[in-house]
Amino acid sequence: MEYRKTEDGILGKAPKPCILCCFDKEDDLNHGKFYVLNSRIYAHYYCLLFSCNLPQNGQDNEGILGFLEKDIVKEAKRGQKIKCCYCHEYSSTIGCSVKTCKRQFHRICGLENGALYQFNDTFKAYCAEHKPRQEQEIEYLSAKGAIGSSSRNDSCPICYNALAPSDNILWAPCCRKGARFHKHCLQLTALSFGYFFKCPLCNEKDKFREVMQNFGIFIPNQDAAWELEGRFVDLERDAKKCDAQECLCPKGRDFHCARFWYIKTCDYCGFERAHVKCVGVSNSQSNWYCKTCKIIKAKKNQENSKLTRVSLGGYTVNIAVPSRSERNGENLASSSVEKYDRTLKENHLPDEVAKKTWTSTS
C-alpha cells in the first residue's frame, strides 16, 4: 500500500482515477487520502469507507487499511452498473441510508449536492433530502424564514471570517448558545489535532467530537500534526552529551562518569548540559547555570534588588523605594514621584495605605 501525497499536500490530479468513483481528484481535505495498492488499485479513502457493499475484512496492515484488493474490485464491478443520481454517470457505489430512498451517487457528487457523510462506527451516507440536521440549524432556518433574512452578524471562531448564509456551517453542541463554525475550518482543525480535537471555545471533547463526526467531520486516529512532524524532537535528545563550547574530555562529549566527567544539567532551564570540569564546577552537587541562564538570572536579581518588601495595613507588596537622597526635602524628585505613582497602580493599593508605606521607609 502506498499513500500518494501531492506537492502541496492537499490538491492535485492522480495519474489514474479512483477505482470506485472514477474521479482523479486528489483532495485530502474533502475526499480523504489517495491510496495506491499493488500499483493497480487507486482509491480515495472516503470512497472506501462509504461504499455500500465494501467490507473491511483484513487487518490494518493488509490491503488499504484493512480493505482487501479482491473486495475493492468486487465493489467496483457492482458500481459499474449503477448510475449517479446527480451526474448520471456510472460507477456510483454510495447510497442514501434511508431504506425507502433509492438515490445512489458518487462521493464527490454527493458532497457537491449537500449529502451528509457520518464518520462514526456505521459510516452512513444521506442524500440532501433525508440527511439529519442539527437542532440549532432547524431553529436558525425557522427564524430566518420568519423575519425574511438573518439578523445575526457573527463570525467563525476559527478563521474570524464572517459566516455567510450560503456557507456550510456547523453549530457547537457544548458551550455558547448559537456558536457556529465553518465546516471547512473544523475539518482542517480535526486533521491537524487528531486525538486532541476538541471544541475551540470551551475545550469540551467527548460530546463535541461525537456530534462533529455525526455531521461530517473526519477525525483521524493519529497524534497531532505538530507531534508527527517532529518539531519537538530536540527535547527528546540523549541527556548524556556535553554542550560546553569547548569540551575538555579526551574521550569526547558523550563520555559520562563520576567526578570530572560527570555530565550536569543546568539548574535553571534543565536543557543545557556539560561536564563539570568543562564549565569549572567543583562537583556534581554544586549549582551550575548555562551561559544564557546566567544572563537571565543576573537581570532578574538586578530588578529584585531595587524592590523593598513592605507589610502594612494588611498588604504585603514589593515596591520601588527612592533612595535617601531622593527623599531629602519636602518635594520629591520627579523620578521618585513616578515610582510612587507606579507603586499605587501596579499593586492596586488604597491611596492612604500607599502613603503610609511610602513614609514608613523614610
Structure described in brief:
This protein is of the alpha+beta class and 362 residues long. It has helices at 28-31, 45-50, 69-79, 107-112, 135-147, 183-193, 206-214, 225-228, 291-305, 324-327, 334-347, 351-360, and strands at 2-4, 11-13, 25-27, 34-37, 41-44, 94-95, 104-105, 116-117, 125-126, 169-171, 180-182, 263-265, 273-275, 307-312, 315-320.
What is the beta-strand fraction?
5-15%
Widest sheet: strand order?
1-4-5
Instruction: Give the termini separation.
Output: 80 Å
Order of helices and strands: EEEHEEHHEEHEEHEEHHHEEHEEHHH
What descriptors fit this protein?
three-stranded antiparallel β-sheet, 362 residues, disordered C terminus, alpha+beta, 30% helix, elongated
